Amino acid sequence: MGVALVLALLVAPEDADQGISQRIFYIHVPIALTAYFCFGLGAWKALMLLWRGDSRYDLESYVAVHQGTIFGALTLITGSIWAKASWGVWWTWSSNQLVLFLVLFLFYCAYFMLRFSIEPGPRRERSSAVYALFGVVLIPVSFLAIRLAEDFIHPTVFTREGPQMTGTMFATFCVSWAAVTLLAYVLYRVELLGKRLDVDLRELREALQ
Amino acid sequence: MSGGQYVAAVYGVVFVFVLAYVAIIAAKLARLQRDTRELVELARAGRPEPRTAEPVTAETTRGA
Q: Is residue A155 within 8 Å of A96, Cβ to Cβ?
């Protein structure tokens, strides 16, 4: 993460068009991609739960969706600051990319409302899994929205001709992406470990009392 | 605000988020540690005390 910060803030050349505010790109885009990945992982674990019926996938799916929501909130906040720096507004409803990402984020926020409104057990596990699976449909729509709608407000960096940036910029982006993904993975493992330990301790308490 | 301040704001927000997350996880781990200690005490209270080992004397160690 330290290397990524040094590269993003000190080494990467300044963008001729956007100036220094372009450096937000190196943290905003990796966070957004990690949010998509976490939601996708949550859906995959949900599918595994429905397929194999193993309860451990429920907790894994929940933690992945939780991580995705945190990274989703960060995407919206960092994106909003970047929008203010580049476009002069905190938010614009005319950009499909932004609106669809907000829809995706709110959809997964509702996941927690659904989950905690049902008593723990197989019914809650299945309902949460089905909901997480439905949400995954929004990911490619949100990701491809800018290309499908030919939106000119939100910039497109990765096109069919490759990344529209210099080699140093692209290397910085790749390092930042790897760092954010690694951070998300570590946080995922730590949270999952804590939750599993919590469940085990609850069972142990019930056995002892 | 200048462009540099916006960049600082973005990286600052990410740092604060990660810090808050780590603090929450640390608080949770501390709670789990307390729970574990409580359960250990509960398990000890429910079991009979183990017999204390006989004191080691010169006679018992001489043959070794």
A: no
